[in-house]
């Protein structure tokens, strides 16, 4: 009998990390974009 590690655990984990990191970057960029637009709008009012 051969005992080998199941690679699917690592495959699923890597996909979860990749999707989570991508969603985190999208959220971060949206927040940064909104803050930049707010600063731009405030500077135009002056």
Automatic annotation (TrEMBL):
Starting at the broadest rank, the lineage of the source organism is: Bacteria, Pseudomonadati, Pseudomonadota, Alphaproteobacteria, Sphingomonadales
The reply on keyword Membrane is yes
Keywords from the UniProt entry: Membrane, Transmembrane, Transmembrane helix
Q: What is this protein called?
A: Heme exporter protein D
Sequence intervals crossing the membrane: 12-36
**Record's keyword annotation contains Transmembrane:** yes
Top-rank lineage group of the source organism: Bacteria
